[in-house]
Amino acid sequence: MEISLKKFGFVLSSREAGREAFAAFQSRLAEVPADERIFINFDGVHTFSPSWADEFLTPLNEKFGSRVYLKESENPSVIATIDLLEKINKFKFKKARASTNLKRR
């Protein structure tokens, strides 16, 4: 499964909006097979704040762990936010090249 974050907007900036986005996506997440990877695509996102990311990516990582992969991004906002989340939460997200295809393990 690939989650394109731009579907939630180009400016992802508030904690409340991140929480709402994660809640709205629950029905899709319930359909993810146990052996499927989840790729997060940042293409099209202009602003990505730590508060929004913490409400969306942190619970996603808690629920799916090693199956969550963040696709590469050159966006400084995305890079800084991911670095901050990893430091605060003391875990590392798995990274995937932007061109990675969706494949099962």
Could you walk me through the main structural features you see in this protein, from its secondary elements to its overall organization?
The chain is an alpha/beta fold and 105 residues long. It has one domain. It contains four helices and six strands, in the order ββααββαβαβ. It has a four-stranded parallel beta sheet with strand order 1-3-5-6. The protein has a two-stranded parallel sheet with strand order 2-4. α4 links the parallel β5 and β6. The longest helix has 15 residues, at 50-64. It is globular and about 30 Å long. It comes from Candidatus Uhrbacteria bacterium RIFCSPHIGHO2_12_FULL_57_11. This is DUF4325 domain-containing protein.
Features:
105 residues; two-stranded parallel ribbon; 6 strands; 42% helix; globular; DUF4325 domain-containing protein
